[in-house]
Amino acid sequence: MRRRTFLGTLAASSVAATLPGESAEAQASAKAKPTKITLLGTGTPAPSLERQGSGYLIEVGDDVIVFDHGPGAHHRLLETGHRAVDVSQVFFTHLHYDHCMDYGRLVLQRWDQGADKIADLLVYGPPPMRRMTDLLFGEDGVYGPDIRARIEHRSSIDQFVARGGKAPRKRPAPRVREIHAGDVIEGSGWKVTVGRATHVEPYLECLAFRLDAPDGSLCYTGDSGASDDIVALAKGCDVLIHMNHYFSGTAPSPAYRAACGNHRDNALTAKRAGVKTLVLTHLLGQIDQARISDQIVHEIQQVFDGKVVWGEDKMQLTFAGPVIANIEGY
Length: 330
Ligand SMILES: [Zn+2]
Known about the structure:
Blueprint: H1 24-32, E1 36-41, E2 55-60, E3 63-69, H2 73-79, E4 89-91, H3 97-100, H4 103-114, E5 122-125, H5 129-137, H6 144-152, H7 154-162, E6 175-178, E7 184-186, E8 191-196, E9 207-213, E10 216-220, H8 228-234, E11 239-243, H9 254-260, H10 263-273, E12 277-281, H11 290-303, E13 307-310, E14 316-318
Parallel strand pairs: 3-4, 4-5, 5-6, 10-11, 11-12, 12-13
Antiparallel strand pairs: 1-2, 1-14, 2-3, 7-8, 8-9, 9-10
Helix pairs in contact: 6-7, 8-10, 10-11
């Protein structure tokens, strides 16, 4: 895997962003502990050992939030030193498998290791998020027999009690809220605004997220082509994490471009939205080669005068420097 070291600061903002009504305590805590964004998976549905399925970890205040959890994203989460039990909320942009395949792993490992001692996972995603959850973890679900065995077999009960649990053991019960563009989810010192992505509607409802934290703002497009909705959602953000699937001009059809965008579209989006830093992700092998990625970054910089970052799995970002990125090991 090509490794780069990113220098200097990312999106240095002279004035820290604040949320209306935010307490002095929340601001003080944000100062002490800056929001940290880790790219867990910057890949696509194409198999890759270097780039896992889509996933982003956001540590804000006391919350550990995941945006999307595609295949391999959970492995990356472990590599960051976190465990499923640390995750408090998960948000899904859409239910393409490369964005949600590790949902089962997150829920089951969190349930198993949590031993009924942690709060239920909060899950936000577009329909059929609830149906997917029921089909996976319900009594008649895919994991129904496994869950029953772990609740009822003596050996599993003993293990559960050894982990500090108190029998009878509860079933996994992720608290699902189905969300749509326009919704706002308030957290402790942060909020997520849900926007509309342009991707594979009407087959899947596709969303984008904007997170406003005490020390900055992040927009994650999920999978999306260019649109006024994305520009509006990302307006003035410190960091825009944008799908950058392929090289401009190589799309097999107009529909493909509309659903996935290209690097020249992304340059314009970043410029129109006035973001400080554009992080490119969801990168196909086609463009994941030094000379091509350099050309893409160069061409984007002809249009967009902010910072452009070629995303890598496990890269870490903060809203205000210094940024230590692309750490080899934890
Ligand atoms: Zn997709």
